[in-house]
């Protein structure tokens, strides 16, 4: 059996929105990936001080959002892992699960890439997968020379995927729910229904 390339899209997904779906679809098509795995964070270490919605709600919203797409999967790997979520641990576990010889393409925004030097075992991470960086609203393209100085070898791992930016943010969505505004065009219909039924984000804190 030949090498299978697959994408991994991590995040708090609080909530998952149409921007996430668009990124995963573009990456799947442009990089010829067999599938994309959504990995909701358990306790994201870079956001440990910010309140987030319980993991089971975020996981269920992702399940509902990706249901129409047979080439999308969801993993509860980080949700079930105790303690903070580190990307390197997730990549190690996914490669063990899906096969070390298969190609893992980790999708992230320009903002996350700019903080790569703060990530756990970043030098090891860039040797284990390809980093696929996509534009993020309000952030400049990454300074690749600076990244290479901070994490030697990263340039051999990075793919800059120039895709259209969608003016959608989870923070804005939570704020709109708190103000009883429509979410049309921002989240899949099944996700909006779940948010309304469960009374999520009524106080716009993400809890």
Report on the architecture of this protein.
The structure is a single chain. This protein has 207 residues and is α/β, with parallel strands linked by helices. The chain has a single domain, classed as Rossmann fold (3-Layer(aba) Sandwich), CATH 3.40.50.620. Helix content is 38%, strand content 17%. The chain has nine helices and eight strands. The strands form two sheets. It has a six-stranded parallel β-sheet, with helices on both faces. The chain has a two-stranded parallel ribbon with strand order 3-5. Helix 2 (55-66) runs antiparallel to helix 9 (189-198) and helix 4 packs parallel to helix 6. The protein is globular and about 45 Å long. The model has no long low-confidence stretch (mean pLDDT 92).
Name given to the CATH architecture: 3-Layer(aba) Sandwich
What structural class do you assign from the helix and strand content?
Answer: alpha/beta
Main CATH class: Alpha Beta
Summed over residues and divided by their number, the pLDDT gives a mean of: 92
Strand order of the largest sheet: 4-2-1-6-7-8
Report the end-to-end length measured between terminal Cα atoms: 45 Å
């Amino acid at each position: 059996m030949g090498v299978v390339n697959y994408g991994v899209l991590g995040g708090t997904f609080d909530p998952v929105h149409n921007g996430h779906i668009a990124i995963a679809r573009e990456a799947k098509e442009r990089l010829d990936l067999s599938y994309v795995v959504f990995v909701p964070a358990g306790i994201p270490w870079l956001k440990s001080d910010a309140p987030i919605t319980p993991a089971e709600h975020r996981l269920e919203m992702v399940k509902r959002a990706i249901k129409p797409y047979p080439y999308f999967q969801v993993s509860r790997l980080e949700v079930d892992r105790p303690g903070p979520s580190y990307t390197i641990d997730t990549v190690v576990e996914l490669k063990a699960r899906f096969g070390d010889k298969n190609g893992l393409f980790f999708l992230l925004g320009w903002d996350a890439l700019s903080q790569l030097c703060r990530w756990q075992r970043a030098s090891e991470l860039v040797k284990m997968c390809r980093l696929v960086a996509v534009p993020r609203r309000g952030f400049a393209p990454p300074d690749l020379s600076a990244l290479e100085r901070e994490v030697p070898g990263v340039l051999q791992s990075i793919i800059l995927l120039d895709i259209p930016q969608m003016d959608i943010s989870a923070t804005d969505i939570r704020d709109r729910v708190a103000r009883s505004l429509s979410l049309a065009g921002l989240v899949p219909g099944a996700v909006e229904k779940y948010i309304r039924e469960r009374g999520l984000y009524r106080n716009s804190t993400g809890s």
